[in-house]
Write a structure and sequence with these properties.
Length: 120
């Protein structure tokens, strides 16, 4: 095999790799755009609703207070809103003393039921 043929083969391999990377990035971008559209379609007032005022929120008020403390809701930790919850992360919520994977699962199930997702 000549050096030209070797160079061509190497370049073809590199092009194929870049095409795979591009396809992966395009899929990721499409997913992000879909998530953005979902987010835009929810009324602003809905996100300002506090968790304690949601009748079907699975945790008691004490947990909302603890979540508010961890998220740094300084005015009144009990007033954690849906907006603040979706901008948090499961990792942050697991820092709440006593809130383990079981309670986190309840929160995630509740969020899924209401078509909410962590944005972090």
């Amino acid at each position: 095999m000549t050096s030209k043929e070797i160079a061509i083969r190497e370049m073809e391999k590199e092009i194929q790799q870049k095409e795979r990377e591009l396809n992966q990035l395009q899929e990721e971008l499409l997913g992000m755009k879909e998530k953005l559209e979902e987010y835009k379609n929810i009324p602003d007032s809905y996100y300002d609703t506090t968790l304690v005022s949601c009748e079907d929120f699975p945790l008691r008020h004490q947990w909302c207070y603890r979540i508010g403390k961890i998220l740094g809701i300084s005015e009144h930790p009990l007033n954690v809103t849906i907006n603040e919850l979706i901008h948090s992360s499961p990792k942050q919520l697991l820092k709440v003393s006593g809130l383990g994977k079981g309670k986190l699962g309840l929160i995630e199930d509740w969020m899924e039921k209401h078509d909410l997702h962590f944005l972090s």
